[in-house]
Amino acid sequence: MSTPEPPAPAALLRRALSVLTEMAPAAVELGEVFAAAGHELALVGGPVRDAFLGRASEDLDFATSATPDETQRLLARWGDAHWDIGKEFGTIGARRYGPGGRTGSGAGDVVVEVTTYRSDEYDPESRKPVVAFGDTLDGDLSRRDFTVNAMAVRLPDLTFVDPFGGLSDLADGVLRTPIAPERSFDDDPLRMLRAARFAARLGFAVEPATRAAIEAMAPRLAIVSAERVQAELSKLLCADQPRAGLEVLVESGLADQVLPELPALRLEIDEHHRHKDVYEHSLIVLDQAIAQETGADGAVPAPDLVLRLAALLHDIGKPATRRFEPGGGVSFHHHEVVGAKMVAKRLRALKYEKQVVKDVARLVELHLRFHGYGDGAWTDSAVRRYVTDAGPLLERLHRLTRADCTTRNRRKARRLSEAYDDLERRIAELQEKEELDAIRPDLDGTQIMAILGISPGRDVGAAYQHLLALRMEHGPLGEERARAELEAWWEARQA
């Protein structure tokens, strides 16, 4: 199968013109407002790049020669609402409401951000750029991360500006820095992570000189805050092709700085191939989990960061638990438990939200629970425990477990799929009969205290857990049987 030829720059220009024409009225009008006040205005960055890719951007980014105060005054006149939350960095935002007005759905709204020309100055030891305003569009574009993001369209006359050959790089599918990559990455090391993110989002390759600079300068990421790293990693994982970006991370050495557990999965494979390549397996599981995400109206809307993190990291406990057994076998006993702890530690270090940390770690801990189901029928009690242990993560666990099957043995793969089909069928049947999602003992705490004549305390909790265990084992007992079981348990406890 031959690889399709990338579109020529001329074809990209025609495509961009079509997209820009649709967004032009609002952009051109804004350009006229700034021009009338004696200022330059240009559409820049992502919206320009996406126009060449045939995609319209809902939010429009502009650069201007106007100061932040002047920009704020002009946007207040142009828009229905404006904000200055980024004013210290030279950015002012505004919104013009669509036909529905302030109370409408937001359809037809135009949202813009206008930033004064920049020429950032960086302290080599600081995590944050020192903001310095510039006075030319070319100078502003030179400080952007990659040439494909360093193109602009001057307004209101729609003149295309491309001082660093971004259009050619876009046509070639290449990521290259507008200035020397060593200088660019020294100024802001996070740009190295953006290279991986754009490889994932756009499917572009990192050109050799830029790639070499990343490999040499990866340790510079140490000065970047965990929050900024986490934001880039999350965007990468939620891109259309995260595998491409992850491969850039690992092969360039960036992953050693931000997610060292991932390259650690490249376990040495002995000559007998006694276990699969865990790193490659993890990337395949990620691909297969993404393929099982559903749309916005489904159970696991795409892209789902929790599912993708769990799929990528589900086996990170294997390197620490690998054992070569007598007779030539290899084991990874309890790698799911070890891996859950490792995941929680890494995600906390990356400053992920507590719920994300908790959910990803729980999925990693549970990802092996299904194995063995096909070898012997689970009792209804085991099915109930599977559902209650997964809780609100059940749909994600379904997808992770199915994605974890990467065997090339078609018969084995079919057997595993059929076994999981059967498990999901049994779960559905029990849920219909017993409301598994909200499983509770047959008696609540108030009833327990009344029956036993006791006050709130540890005994009530112990009784509740006893009845919950019976409920899990036998299904609904009914109030009469539950009362008898409770009284028998209490009598034995007092003996």
TrEMBL record:
Its cofactor is Mg(2+). InterPro entries: HD/PDEase_dom (IPR003607), HD_domain (IPR006674), HDIG_dom (IPR006675), NT_sf (IPR043519), PolA_pol_head_dom (IPR002646), PolyA_RNA-bd (IPR032828), tRNA_adenylyltransferase (IPR014065), tRNA_CCA-adding_enzyme (IPR050124). Pfam families: HD, PolyA_pol, PolyA_pol_RNAbd. Residues 274-435 form the HD/PDEase domain. Keywords: ATP-binding, Coiled coil, Magnesium, Metal-binding, Nucleotide-binding, Nucleotidyltransferase, RNA repair, RNA-binding, Transferase, tRNA processing. The keyword RNA-binding applies. Residues 413-440 form a coiled coil. CDD domains: HDc (cd00077), NT_ClassII-CCAase (cd05398). PANTHER family: MULTIFUNCTIONAL CCA PROTEIN. This is CCA tRNA nucleotidyltransferase. It comes from Isoptericola chiayiensis.
